[in-house]
Amino acid sequence: MRKTFDTVSRSVILLIMLVFATAMVFAIVPDPKVKKKVKPTTTTTTTKKQTPASTKKQTTTKQPAKKQSSASTKQSNQVTTHKWKEVGKDHEGLARVEDANGKWGYIDMTGQVVIPCKWKDAWSFSEGLAAVKDNNGKWGFIDKTGKVVIPCKWKDTWTFHEGLAYVQDANGKYGFIDKTGKVVIPCQWKSACNFNFFDGLADVMDANGNWLKIDKTGKVVK
User: Fold this and answer.
1) With b meaning 16 or more CB within 10 Å and e meaning fewer, what string describes 89-123?
2) Which among 51, 96, 199, 210 counts the fewest CB atoms within 10 Å?
3) Torsion of CA 129, 131, 133, 138, to 10 degrees
């Protein structure tokens, strides 16, 4: 009986030892089905931002604006017009104006009256002279001081160009005068172009209503 007990005891002890050894083995050897989580290592590479040459801020040196002369920037429409019925454009530093009585004179670009308003009508200055109409309805020319340099005796006229201006005589015929008032092309034409001479030629109309070109001697050239 004792022998049997010893045998059983020994078997139990061996079994316990076997179980303990097995447990130790499983504790040491990892289960192949369980993967060890490895924390990924993130490597951060810092790249220096390159600035393209074309995007680099340019240094701009601001140039001071050139001051313009007040005289060069004044326009005829800047002249005070509250006292005038009409104001013409600036020509050669003077502008024609019509007052409340319907008379014409001239002002400078500051608005100062240079030539009193005493003319029935007036044209702008050209080549230093301006055509004006007197109270009798006759045309002549004045200079920039208001002095009459060509007497008012013509029925019609226009501004000077290339040294000549057309005039209409008492018979309704047209010719041309120079800046002294001398008739250089006789009044024999039915009409004449307002532009007077241009490049040495002027347009005139003959008795039959045909437009012709003449030179400064009055000769028909075309």
Assistant:
1) ebbeebbbbbbeeebbbbbbbeeeeebebebbebb
2) 199
3) 110
Q: Tell me the sheet residues that pair with 211.
A: 205
Return d(Cα 158, Cα 182) in angstroms, integer: 15
pTM above 0.85, yes or no: no
pLDDT tens-digit readout, 40-59: 444 444 444 444 444 344 44
Token duo for residue 132: 């004006």
Question: Which pLDDT belongs to residue 194?
Answer: 79
**What residues contact 22, with CB distance under 8 A and at least 6 apart?**
none
Cβ neighbours, 10 Å, residue 76: 16
Strands (E), 15-147: 86-87, 95-98, 104-107, 113-119, 121-122, 130-133, 139-142
Q: Please, are residues 218 and 185 in contact by the beta-carbon 8 Å criterion?
A: yes
How many C-beta atoms surround the C-beta of residue 162 within 10 A? 14
Please give the Cα distance from 121 to 138 (Å, whole number): 10
pLDDT tens per residue across span 114-156: 999 999 999 999 999 999 999 999 999 999 999 999 999 999 9
Element (H, E) at 184: strand 183-189
173-201 confidence digits (pLDDT tens): 999 999 999 999 999 999 998 778 999 99
Q: Quick check: 23 pLDDT over 80?
A: no
